[in-house]
Write a structure and sequence with these properties.
With about 375 residues, the chain is α+β, with helices and mostly antiparallel strands. It is built from 10 helices and 19 strands. A hairpin with a 2-residue loop joins strand 18 and strand 19.
Length: about 375
Amino acid sequence: MGIVWDINVERPEFPQLTSAIEADLVVVGLGGSGLTALLHAAQRGLSVVGIDADRIAAGAAGRNGGLLLAGIADFHHNVRKELGIERATALYQHTLDEMDRIEATTPEAVSRIGALRIGELKVGEDSEELADTYAHRDALIADGFPVEDYEGDQGVGILIPTDGTFHPAKRAIALAKLAQAAGAKIYTHSPAIKIESGIVTTDQGSSRAKHILVAVDGNLGKALPELADQVQPTRLQMISTAPDEKLKLKYAVYTRQGWDYWQQLPDGRIAIGGGRDLALAQEATDVVEPTQTMRDYLVQSLEALGATAPIEHHWAAIVSYTESGLPIVKQVQPGVWAVGAYSGTGNVVGALLARSVVDQFIDGQSKVVSDFAS
């Protein structure tokens, strides 16, 4: 059924790992997180190898909604209640800093004009969602983070000017090219069949390294069985339209507590995802095939927005959720670290944590890792 992000994008080819090699660091999983780690490690002087079971960004990193949002999975006012103001503020600031790095590293793939959290699609309505949106706003203001009220063509809610969008495939390709230029070696179609301290074994080769970073999300429990009982694989689904010449949506949108999200691409296509709360049991799966139930819901959501262009693509991606909503960043074996389970918001947090684990390897400590893991 295709993915909107693959339109007019040519992904580079990389060899399979078919021999025994050595490096300072092996990164398993080459989505946005793994590619960020690969580039950062190479820039910091490590010899580094990256491997993936498929092509780069074949999983959720190349199949997501393309939103860059500050914060972790839950909204800031809720995180303050759960984790305390000091820690919530630290985590939010870390993500803001990472978004600056993302934009600076791959500016051709990023647009940070802001993004909306919409409480109501129509002006004049009143709801619990809008009240919660304003509670979100008030918490951001209290902690000194940028936010504005919004009331316009796209509804009523708040504009977070630091947020934005990106093109997942273009960003992944740019990161891979930068990492290679910095000296990293990349191998694709090389599934890791065993990960243990000091060595990663693939189906046709192996790589020995002092440091190993497993940077996968949806398949985290499969890659590292010791984490299987801590994560829930979950399917997220999206559809996209042909270019819509009548509808003009300036900002990307999150709404219904983040269950639904959409953006209009520069070429006029609309990409929309969500509705998982209507079929939680069905979507608690690692089966990547999209379903008619979610397609029907997303088509109805498009119609509510006023979209009239025909549907071109319908796809799914597998991510992992944790019970707490906090991502996993931990050492699971001596020298083997895992990052993942971003609970649906890995575009920023994943890159942030993968980069920070590299710093942990080199420097022996990382404030980001400490703040997330404490």
